């Protein structure tokens, strides 16, 4: 486990989505975060105290979390300099980037000298199996998306909480660096060797016999030209019983690829169901999760209502309004003795 | 380049498809292969002289090619022992397994002492980009399959030869270990980190301005629960203009997963076209390639005719009978000045 409390890194970032790992920790592990480290050119904030490394150490911080992302996950020179300063001040350093901290000789040397640890969260386990597609016991929900970074992790965590509030056994299965940092465990799917994608998810969410649910964090989108392979392997490995489609209504083009239009929600859901049926022919859509952060309450509720009506499924912003509408429908669909007969999809 | 001539390894294998890398070299680089190394329990043969390591060295062999595959690509103890014996006799060793030769300390040490080289063909290049999905110049054909190991590489090479015979500029883009060993270059797609799948193919088959074709070797199948993520990333990165669907009519269940039925050909083609349209909306199917090795000539020709009739596309075994029917149709579909108007799909 990565020693808390954390100093969250924003650095020079001016990309709201690029700081999503830091933001996720500030949101879901608020009690473990003492402040944020940002430079003068960073217009973003997590609403935490802005601290220098020295101030963070004085506030009890034990780890600097490099919670920023860029396409390709590269470890840039500015990040390295800030990490070196943190190490010199006695902080551990954690990162979810593809580039490994330990592969940067300056960081490895400095950490060894200072006696602190470098945590590379995006390190998949060795010896993953190739997927076998065999049906396994247990109930699984997978969040899928129209795009990357539309709120799949938030929706998954909120649905877990809503299930637990009903007394259901429900566990979050993290598949990305932010989720792994929040949960303290998981598997960084996009860093897995391609041949082992579905096998990785079979390992992350094995057979389950307690009647409870695994809620698996989705990745990417079948409609994202960069990452749809990851999404496909995830769908096949998860063999989900239930899909929740996540969408950010404020998104105008695909993340990082503004020339690519977002898919229609119904088309996106159909494509995901089609792919998922290969390993679970009984898969069904159970809800739509909208990320309504840019809308006021009335507009958000109206959009959820209209979207749900249009798609014939419960629709909510599960992080903002709770996951109850979707969990209600799940309980109907998957009631142990009275199978639902009014499937809308 | 890996020094020829080669001694091809079959080892203890009793799996006809598992030795496909050795067989591919024996077929397409016959002049560079002096013999095969197989143990007494191996019932398979490539039709080459069976040689001991000493006999192979005496016949001029310079490299032992570990041309066998297993799910997961593991380097087993028997392989290691045979590779050590080859190194001791002065041979280089080449492997397409996921497990790297250089990561096995006994092999690394022995090779260093003997002054020979270990070639890990399944090493993807470092610093691959994330895919961008941007349309790029050039014409691309991708082979796709109902399953793994149904003849995509053979079909791709045969279609290249058929195109060249018409005076077209046409290049084979290898994406698997066998193709890379045959072509002497390429990119082992299934060994790429998942986030970089489509970016890897954009790198392998960049913009092309000479009016010629890139013929990209397909991998896996959208209907294979273990590997469909790789196939999806390949489709998106290739942004193919033309798809050729490859199928082995003798296959009864998916490779390695006998519980999974093979997809219907029309369904499989439709699914591939749907995925491919994300990065090239103009993609079209141009033919069906059957692997008829288990059929006699008359049965093979009858099956090709019936399959082509049923799917409304030219169908042949391009390795056995040549790729002309498919190339004829490609020339019609992609004629520079007279676009085809009778598309059947």
UniProtKB/TrEMBL annotation, chains A, B:
User: Which protein are we looking at?
Assistant: DUF1611 domain-containing protein
Xref: InterPro entries: DgcN-like, DgcN-like_C, DgcN-like_N, P-loop_NTPase
Question: Which organism does this sequence originate in?
Answer: Sphingomonas liriopis
* Domain annotation D-glutamate N-acetyltransferase-like N-terminal: ranges: 48-124
Task: Provide the D-glutamate N-acetyltransferase-like C-terminal domain boundaries.
Answer: 133-327
Query: Per its UniProt entry, which superkingdom is the organism in?
Result: Bacteria
Pfam families tied to this protein: DUF1611 (PF07755), DUF1611_N (PF17396)
Report the SUPFAM superfamilies cross-referenced here. Answer: P-loop containing nucleoside triphosphate hydrolases (SSF52540)
């Amino acid at each position: 486990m990565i020693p808390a409390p954390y100093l969250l890194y924003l650095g020079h970032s001016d990309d709201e989505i690029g700081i999503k790992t830091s933001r996720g920790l500030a949101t879901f592990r608020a009690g473990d975060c003492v402040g944020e480290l940002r430079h003068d050119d960073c217009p973003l904030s997590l609403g935490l105290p802005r601290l220098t490394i020295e101030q963070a150490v004085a506030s009890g911080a034990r780890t600097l979390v490099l919670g920023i992302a860029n396409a390709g996950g590269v470890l840039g020179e500015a990040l390295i300099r800030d990490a070196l300063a943190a190490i010199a001040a006695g902080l551990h350093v954690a990162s979810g980037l593809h580039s490994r901290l330990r592969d940067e000789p300056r960081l490895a040397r400095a950490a060894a000298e200072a006696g602190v640890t470098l945590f590379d969260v995006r390190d998949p386990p060795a010896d993953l199996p190739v997927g076998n597609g065999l049906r396994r016991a247990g109930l699984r929900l997978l969040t899928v998306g129209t795009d990357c970074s539309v709120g799949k992790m938030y929706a998954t965590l909120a649905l877990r909480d809503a299930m637990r509030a009903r007394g259901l056994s429900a566990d979050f299965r993290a598949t990305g660096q932010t989720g792994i940092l929040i949960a303290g465990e998981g598997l960084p799917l996009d860093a897995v060797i391609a041949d082992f994608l579905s096998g990785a998810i079979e390992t992350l969410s094995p057979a389950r016999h307690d009647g409870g649910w695994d809620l698996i964090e989705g990745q990417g989108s079948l409609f994202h030209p960069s990452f749809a392979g990851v999404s496909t392997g995830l769908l096949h490995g998860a063999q989900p019983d239930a899909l929740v489609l996540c969408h950010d209504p404020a998104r105008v083009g695909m993340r990082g690829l503004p020339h690519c239009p977002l898919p229609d929600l119904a088309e996106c859901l159909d494509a995901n169901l089609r792919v998922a049926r290969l390993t679970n022919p009984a898969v069904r859509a159970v809800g739509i999760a909208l990320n309504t952060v840019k809308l006021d309450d009335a507009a958000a509720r109206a959009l959820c209502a209209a979207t749900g009506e249009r798609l014939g499924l419960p629709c909510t912003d599960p992080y903002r309004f709770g996951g109850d509408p979707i969990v209600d429908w799940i309980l109907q669909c998957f009631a142990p003795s009275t199978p639902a007969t009014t499937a809308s999809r």
